Amino acid sequence: MHKKKKTSVRRIITGRIVSLLPIVVLQGLIIFCIARWLAPFATLFYSVLSVLSALFVLFLISKREEGAYKMLWLLVMFVAPLPGALMYLLYGNKRTGRVLEQRLNTIHDTIPIALNGDEDTQKQIAGEDKRIAQTFAYVKNITGFPVLRNDTARYYPVGELLFEQMLSALKEAKRYVFIEYFIVQEGVMWEAMVNVMEQKVQEGVDVRVLYDDIGSIGTFSTRNRASLLKKGIKCEKFNPLIVLSGALNNRDHRKIMVVDGIVAFSGGINLADEYINEVHPYGHWKDIGFQITGDAIRSYAYMFIEFWNASSANKITKELVGDDYDKTRISANMDFDGYVLPYYDSPNRVEAASNNLFIDLLGQSVNYIWFYTPYLLLGDGLRDAFVRAAQRGVDVRIVMPGIPDKKVVYHMSRSYYRELLEAGVRIYEYTPGFVHAKACLMDDHVGSIGTVNLDYRSLYLHYECNALFYKASLLKDLKKDFETSMEAGRERTLQEEKRGFVHRVVNDVLRIFAPLI
For residue 504, how far is the Cα from the chain centroid? Predict the structure, then answer.
């Protein structure tokens, strides 16, 4: 089974590479012809290039972006001015994703779901904790998503438990199913879901699957998509791979499933067997997620419909979702379990919502703040926030993988250990296997769970989704899970990080390129 899956992955990737070869060759020929044409004007060309490079550097310095990210691009342009500037304009500049963002923006007025929130909700939080209310207000203002009363939210400490509930909800679907994931891969998990989805289509349920084209580049092919369409399951890919597309880096890293407007699921797991420990490429796969009911479902349905309608000619209309989303559904029958703000990050916003949220929570933490993340590639602002919180006596902890899935990224992550440990941050590595969970918990009453890793790609380049909770009971379960994972792991020491001069030098060199990973 495992060998067959590897063969399939190789075949899909090979097919993609072969299909792109003519484009790459054509680009090479164009560059060669331009170079030959410019050869007689080399002196003039390089003089103009020097002036343009200086202006470009001034432009980059003046931009409001993460300092380490700008420094790397400045280094690239110093070494290779023309290729560096072209690479930045194509892949490093937020303006390059404008076409994709404009396509999403044109959908907003046609989405058959209103993002209404209870106006008193924000005031209720402010009455309990004005500082936390300001945090919620910031995220709301940046993302446009409302603060809501939480109905029920159940926490799942491993992917296999979350998957059981997802499959159960699929079987109960009556009207529609929305599924949006970064990675979709054939296997036990996907086959079980497809079998249920196919049955639901036969019962008249509208089933739609949206996957990221690059995220699933080695796991989900045109043939897989055609197979779903043949079964009556609508399927689209988000932001198709185009070599010179400026939005190439802007991937849909979100994980969302919504059923009938009754229940929604999110968290770290993708739709592949390692996420539910059917296979063990990196030991035990530690992932988390949650199931939510109530008004918060509207936010997740909105996220899906926006991306689906921007990717497909077969739009989702009000006839499908009905009138349930026109107003908040607070009633005497609705449970009250704290507050929640589901939102998504966009790489085209000036403000990096999740990055700034984590900085804010670190800044206001009093007793403790703990994080789950598979990768640790921090910008200057977030790194300094970790250091400052620990230096003033807050119990700051980070739970990382014990067995890495990407060794280069793991070594880059390790390059941050020494500075953080010196400040008093405690770092645990989950020795049973790989941690893919993404969460934050502060002082028992505030926490977030979603798809956001503590790396540049998640914080600045990807579309991500996250849920910010306040005084919700699932935070107690999250805390217990943190404690269990730390007990199962090994705490890193400063003494360990001081050993191996060559090892540290290699890690520090790799760290320079962290913003590109």
Answer: 29
Report the chain's C-alpha Rg in angstroms. Answer: 23
100-131+144-341 CATH, one of 3.30.870.10, 1.10.3980.10, 3.30.460.20, 3.40.50.300: 3.30.870.10
| Residue-wise DSSP of 345-414 | E-TTSSS-HHHHHHHHHHHH-SSEEEEE-S-B---HHHHHHHHHHHHTT-EEEEEEESS-SSHHHHHHHH
* Average pLDDT score over residue span 381-402: 97
How far is residue 463's CA from residue 254's CA, in Å, rounded to a whole number? 7
Lowest mean pLDDT among 86-100, 363-377, 393-407, 469-483: 86-100
Pick the CATH number of 353-516 from 3.30.870.10, 3.40.50.300, 1.10.260.40, 3.30.70.120: 3.30.870.10
Pick the range with the lowest mean pLDDT from 166-170, 311-315, 347-351, 491-495: 347-351
Domain residue limits, the chain:
2-92, 100-131+144-341, 353-516
pLDDT at 329 over 70: no
Determine the average pLDDT of the residues in 268-286.
97
E strand map for 40-166: 148-149, 152-156
Alpha helix stretches (DSSP H) within 312-348 = 318-321
Which among 300, 316, 318, 341 is positioned nearest to 468, based on CA atoms?
341
Residues in the chain: 517
Short-list 122, 115, 447, CA closest to 301: 115
- Checking phi first, is residue 187 left (phi over 0); if not, alpha (psi -120 to 50) or beta? left
What 3-state class would DSSP assign to 249? coil
For residues 178 and 311, the answer to whether their CB atoms sit within 8 Å is no
- How far is Cα 374 from Cα 286, in angstroms, rounded to an integer? 10
Residue with tokens 């194509």: 90
**Residue 107 is encoded by which pair of tokens?**
């959908």
CA–CA gap between residue 417 and residue 426 (Å, rounded): 9
Is 353-516 in the same CATH topology as 100-131+144-341? Answer: yes
Q: Is pLDDT of 6 > 70?
A: no
Name which of 302, 359, 303 is nearest 325 in CA terms.
302
* pTM assigned to the model: 0.86
